[in-house]
């Protein structure tokens, strides 16, 4: 069975609103640039992601800018084969779906996937997010031992 190329964010967009995904895929010219408020949310998410990386220091990053997704996937595989224990933005593709894992870590019992959210609670869309990542990563041949959601602790 062949599937069209779809990123994790497009998959999640489609779960939330079919029309939004259709417009995103078929009329990208209608896309609006984020306003200051949306950009602040994006920036906060990036900051939380950087903080979460401190839980697993000395990881190897997969650079987003300047490389193709095929190059990102190849670099991820090379780092895994080289025995690197922590990879930030590890990239995988399976059945036409592309994901970039916030933190991939070789734990005591096997590979662990960590998805980081700038949220104070777990939402259903977050569970769907890690589910598609699990599907893609394990489907691409990497045996995952555990999958975790990291979110902000609002009690401290």
Task: Tell me about this structure.
It is a single chain. By secondary structure, the chain is an alpha/beta fold. α1 crosses α2 and α1 runs antiparallel to α5. It has a single domain, classed as Trna Endonuclease, Chain: A, domain 1, CATH 3.40.1350. The chain has 5 helices and 6 strands, in the order βαααβαβββαβ. It is globular and about 45 Å long. Strands 1, 2, 3, 4, 5 and 6 form a 6-stranded mixed beta sheet that branches. The mean pLDDT is 89. The chain starts with 5 loop residues before the first strand and ends in a 6-residue tail after the last strand. Helices cover 42% and strands 23% of the residues.
Describe the secondary-structure layout:
Elements (H helix, E strand, L loop, with lengths): L5 E2 H9 L1 H9 L9 H18 L6 E2 L7 H13 L4 E9 L2 E10 L4 E6 L7 H16 L4 E7 L6
Parallel strand pairs: 1-4, 2-3, 5-6
Antiparallel strand pairs: 3-4, 4-5
Helix pairs in contact: 1-2, 1-5
List the main descriptive attributes of the protein structure presented here.
156 residues; alpha/beta; Trna Endonuclease, Chain: A, domain 1; 6-stranded mixed sheet
Quickly give the structural class: alpha/beta
Gap between N and C termini: 48 Å
- Would you tell me which CATH topology applies? Trna Endonuclease, Chain: A, domain 1
* SS element count, helices: 5
Q: Can you name the CATH architecture? A: 3-Layer(aba) Sandwich
Largest sheet, strands/sense/barrel = 6 strands, mixed
Topology as H/E string?
EHHHEHEEEHE
Helix content: 40-55%
Roughly what is the average pLDDT, rounded to an integer? 89
Shape: globular
Note the beta-strand portion: 15-25%
Number of strands: 6
The number of distinct structural domains comes to 1
- Low-pLDDT regions: none
CATH class: Alpha Beta
